Amino acid sequence: CPPLSPLSPPSPGAVKVTPGHSPADLALARAQGLPLLSVINEDGTLCPPGGGWLQGVPRFAARPQVLAALAERRLLRGTREHPMTLPLCRY
Questions:
Q1: For residue 44, how far is the Cα from the chain centroid?
Q2: Domain chopping of the chain, boundaries
Q3: 80-89: per-residue pLDDT in tens?
Q4: Higher pLDDT, 36 or 5
Q5: Reported pTM
Q6: Buried-most residue among 1, 15, 21, 65 (CB within 10 A)?
Q7: 73, 53, 20, 18 alpha-carbon torsion, rounded to 10°
Q8: For residue 1, what pLDDT is reported?
Q9: Quick one: which of 56, 82, 53 has its CA closest to 68?
Q10: Pro residues composition bias: which ranges (predicted)?
Q11: Model confidence over 14-66: pLDDT tens digits?
């Protein structure tokens, strides 16, 4: 994925970049000079970079709060189930 630039064509949406989850995203974040932030504490609660209003909230409890906040601001277009397969490491 080439780095974004001011000359990149306009996009109708947003791109989620998760440098801690993908080597490609890490390269993109570094190329763009993005800070590497941790939004979830080791105990599974959200910390300030994840939204100060969610600080200390368990991650699974935060999801409905985020959806409600988006809906309240009329920024939520909808939700749908998305099955995921997460690879497991045996080490």
A1: 15
A2: 38-78
A3: 887 877 777 7
A4: 36
A5: 0.59
A6: 65
A7: 10
A8: 43
A9: 53
A10: 1-12
A11: 677 788 778 888 898 899 898 888 888 899 999 887 778 999 999 999 999 99
For residues 42 and 18, give the distance between their C-alpha atoms in angstroms, rounded to a whole number. 17
- Locate 16 and state its tokens: 């989620």
Count the alpha carbons within 13 Å of 2 in the hemisphere toward its beta carbon.
6
pLDDT mean over 65-75: 93
Place of tokens 């920024």: 75
Contacts of 66 (CB under 8 A, 6+ apart): 51, 54
Q: Which residue reads 């599974």 in tokens?
A: 44
Measured over the CA atoms of residue 46, residue 52, residue 55 and residue 58, the dihedral's sign is negative
Place of tokens 């800070």: 35
Asked if 78 and 66 count as a contact pair (C-beta separation under 8 A), the reply is no
